[in-house]
Amino acid sequence: MPHHRRVTRRLGLRTALAASVALPLSSTALSPAPASAEERLRRPLEVMSFNLRFASTAEPNSWAARRPVMRQLLRRERPHVIGTQEGLYQQLRDIEADLGPAYDWIGTGRAGGSRDEFMAILYDTRRLVPLEYDHFWLSDTPDVIASNTWGNASIRMVTWARFRDLGAGGREFYLLDTHLDNASQYARARAASLTAERIAGLDRALPVLVTGDFNVPAHENPVYDTMLSAGLVDTWDAAAERGEPYGTFHGYKPLVPGGDRIDWILASPGVTVHRAAINTFASGGQYPSDHLPVQATLTLG
């Protein structure tokens, strides 16, 4: 890693699996025609939020069927940082194997260690340097691994990191990645409030980005209002240019133009949003996930 400043969780990025707190691994080179290092640094920061859909053997949308399409999508888009949801450990290892050595990732299973789903953050090491990271669980005991006290159908958590952006003169920023509960509005509301509280405790001199599957439509649920009350804006609304709107969860059914946007990228108001998009890439009728990735091209404030 190009910088030797200590990276929390105090164990560094290559944390042992036995620690059960973080499992960063090498990942990807997202490019069919690889960009030069200089070009990667010149580009605005490219952010993606992507619910990967956990690896399954169920056809016709097994992970074996989806994996090549996922590889094509990521190589085509080449985001600098990706907040993911639902990825399983071996699935993330597959993505690591499919993509080159320029990328790394941070994450832990929501049940601890390699167990259950990850809120993994993938990042381009040519552009971003992680300075610290941690996790908290969406419960009354957020620092207790795998805690679940609000009636969530599943354990829910946040993975966050503070990065230095080598392409923005060393500007630092935070990224938080989460997946709110699919069943309980009460749990989602409590989770949004806790996340807003944690954001308030960060260094407010630094920009904040939040990626996630929030399981509620933007503009139509108090969860959205709570997240924006944390001093954030919706990059879709703030963008100078937008792609075509679609519902971001399709469940492998026909896409819904103008449908519910439940996957969001939020940002501090000082961040300039050049473009926002919902990516509809598929190959041979196969989508890489049951969600569409959302993307934003940003300049940090």
Task: Please describe the topology of this protein.
Layout: E1 26-27, H1 37-42, E2 45-51, H2 63-77, E3 81-85, H3 89-98, E4 103-106, E5 121-124, E6 128-137, E7 157-165, E8 171-179, H4 185-200, E9 208-213, H5 222-229, E10 233-234, H6 235-238, E11 241-242, E12 263-267, E13 272-278, E14 294-299
Parallel strand pairs: 2-3, 8-9, 11-13
Antiparallel strand pairs: 1-4, 2-14, 3-5, 4-5, 6-7, 7-8, 9-12, 10-12, 13-14
Helix pairs in contact: 2-3, 4-5
What does this structure look like?
- The chain has 301 residues and is α+β, with helices and mostly antiparallel strands.
- The protein has a single domain, classed as 4-Layer Sandwich (Deoxyribonuclease I, Chain A), CATH 3.60.10.10.
- Helix content is 20%, strand content 26%.
- It has 6 helices and 14 strands.
- It has helices at residues 37-42, 63-77, 89-98, 185-200, 222-229, 235-238, and strands spanning 26-27, 45-51, 81-85, 103-106, 121-124, 128-137, 157-165, 171-179, 208-213, 233-234, 241-242, 263-267, 272-278, 294-299.
- The strands form 2 sheets. It has an 8-stranded mixed beta sheet. The protein has a 6-stranded mixed beta sheet with strand order 6-7-8-9-12-10.
- Strand 7 (157-165) and strand 8 form a beta hairpin.
- Helix 4 packs parallel to helix 5 (222-229).
- The chain is globular, with a radius of gyration of 17 Å.
- Residues 1-33 have low confidence and may be disordered.
